[in-house]
Each structure stands twice: as structure tokens, then as C-alpha cells.
Write a structure and sequence with these properties.
CATH architecture: Up-down Bundle
Strand content: under 5%
Oligomer: single chain
Radius of gyration: 21 Å
Shape: globular
Number of strands: 0
Order of helices and strands: HHHHHHHHHHHHHHH
Distance between the termini: 34 Å
CATH class: Mainly Alpha
Helix content: over 70%
Structural class: mainly alpha
Number of helices: 15
Largest sheet: none
Length: about 425
Amino acid sequence: MSLLTLKTLSPQIKQYLVITGNYWAFTLTDGALRMLVVLYFHQLGYSPLSIAMLFLFYEVFGVITNLVGGWLGARLGLNKTMNIGLALQIIALAMLAVPAEMLTVIYVMAAQALSGIAKDLNKMSAKSSIKLLVPQSESIDENSDNKNKSKATLYKWVAILTGSKNALKGIGFFLGGLLLTLLEFKGAVILMAAILAIVWLFSLLLLKADLGKAKNKPKFNEIFSKSADINILSAARMFLFGARDVWFVVALPVFLAVTFNWDHWWVGGFMASWVIGYGIVQSVAPMITNNKSGKTPSGKDAFIWASYLTIIPALIALALQFDFYIQASIIVGLLIFGAVFAVNSSLHSYLIVSYAGKDGVSLDVGFYYMANAMGRLIGTVLSGWVYQEHGLQACLWISTAFLASASLLSLKLKQA
């Protein structure tokens, strides 16, 4: 994009580009750091379950951060919460640039906790900002063509931001492995901290100071949503992401390594490719779910797509039970699950931005992503414990039950 083209863009688009650039840079470091930690501690002889527990505080503090971060965003402005998130990630990376003997489990968990806070501040800020920057037609009748076009634009922007984030996270997995090979652990985190520091400085200069600041300063007790639709959607989101992580985070990588005898590069590469494909499908979700009239998704669409998704882990569990082409069933099933899950996630991401109030939007979005983080936390803990005690098949049946719950909850959602 030329400088002349940039000058002709609207202020909203310019802000959107700054936010997206911040989000992309952060996501690359987040994905790379996760893979660096996994591979480095694998080299040190830690078990997969022990490695997964290194990320426990990352998820716990994600729950807290989303709940409090939305309130901070409404009071301080989304520019400040996004820049605070970038700064905290730089500190987390710098914490890990210490001699190897200092990298104890507790120390790494503390650094990961800081990274978890940073990630959810950054994500909440980016997702909330779209509601404020996308062209709106609030004064136009709900049934008008202009209103539908405005909603369709919002859906497209949300899908692009969400999908690109996940694709870049997958690329970050590859980047983490490459940096570990070329620079070793300490060199890799120093390089990422330096690059992110440059992004942070540009963000301080370019991001508007009043973005997302509520006209009336919200009280702390307003962090809990009073909207029935947002509460229902948040509960559905919790079950949706719990259903993914209950078999994806710990159980699946260990199963691939133990049952199929894949080494960690094969496992990491496969998981990274899955995340990249998942992000690509998220980006094009509006093409999959929209009809030719440009009608945007509603609660009914969330129910339909969650119902489709519920069937997939159940079929994989049955394939395991009856010993039906196990490797093909797992790989093909995971690919189909990823595509359908991506559409579900993109639908939810659009619905929360659509349901959220424009003044203090970060309160609603923060509450919703708190439920998202809670689902990841529940899924991560169950993934390790249930797989260790009962195996992958049990994880898949729990995933099925969670998705059935998400489907039933979605029935209660109104039109967006």
C-alpha cells in the first residue's frame, strides 16, 4: 500500500490498520513463545502434562484480565489497555531472557501469567475497537438495505481480524521452532522483545487517546453484563472453547506422539498447520454463512452450526471405540472439526460485537472473553486429567456434551 493511498484513507480505517498491526505483531510473539516454551522444556525432559501446566496461570489470569480489562478499557480508553498489553508482553519476554538455571517452573509460570494478562488485554482492546471503527448506520431503520450492509461490514471486519489472528498464531508456532534452532531460547526471546518494543512505540504515537472511553465512567460492579443475550452467548462460548481444549490442548498432542509415534516436530507442525487452516476458514466465514441478500448471522445460525459441530467429536469417539481406521479418523476428523469450529467461533465473535453497547463496548466484550478464557481453563485442566485417567475417547465424549450445551444455549439467542 503506497503512502498516497494511506493518506486518502479515512481516520477509522487508519486506526483499524494500527490496531490490526498491533494485534498481528502480538499474536506472532504469543504463538512463538508458546512453542518455544513447549519445545525447550520438552528438551529438558518435562512430560507433556507438566508442560501444559506451565500455561495454567496463563489461562487463569486470562479469566481475571478479561473481566477487569473491559472495565479498564471503558474508563481509560482502549488505546491505553492495548498499549499496556504490548508493554506487559515485552516484560514477560524479558523475564525469560535469563540464564537457564533461573528458568524454574514457578518462574516460567509467573512469566506466562504476565503474558496471559497481556494477551487478553490486547485481544479485548482489538475486538472492542471494531465496534467503534466500523461504519455504523444506527439511525437507519433496522430493515433497510443500508443497515444490513453496515452489519455485513461489521461481520466481515470481525472475521478478518479474528481469522488472521489465528492464522498468524499458527505461523508463530513455526517461528518459535525456527528461532529456537537458530538463536536458542534466550536469543529468541530477546529478539521478539526488541521487535515488539518497536511496535509498542509506534502504537503510542499513532493510536487515538479517546478510543473506546465511555462517556460515563462505569463502576466496578458493572463488569458483569446485564444483557441476557450477552450472558447466554458468553455461556455458549465457554462451552464451545471448553469443548475444543478438552481434547486439543494436552490429550491430542500426547495421543499423536504416543499412539502414532510422531516426534515433537511432527506434532508441532501438524498442530500449527491446523491453527493456520482454522484461521483461514475464520476469515472467510462470512462467505460461508451469508446468503446472497447479505443477511448477517443470528442466534439461529449459532445453534445450527454448534449442532453440526456436536456430531464430529462423537463420531471420532465411536471410531476409537470400534477401532475404525484410527489414524485416518483422528486426522480427517480433526480437520473437519477445525473448519466447522472456525465458523462457530467467527459467528460468536460477530454476535458479541453486534450485541455489545457502543458506549463502554469493552465491558460487554471483556465479560464475553472472560467466559472464553474460563472455557479454555476448564478444557486445559480436564484435557490433562481426563486423558491421564480415561484416555482420548473420554475427552471426546466430554467435548460432545459441552457442544450440545452450547447448542441448546444458542436456541435462546435473539436475532443480531
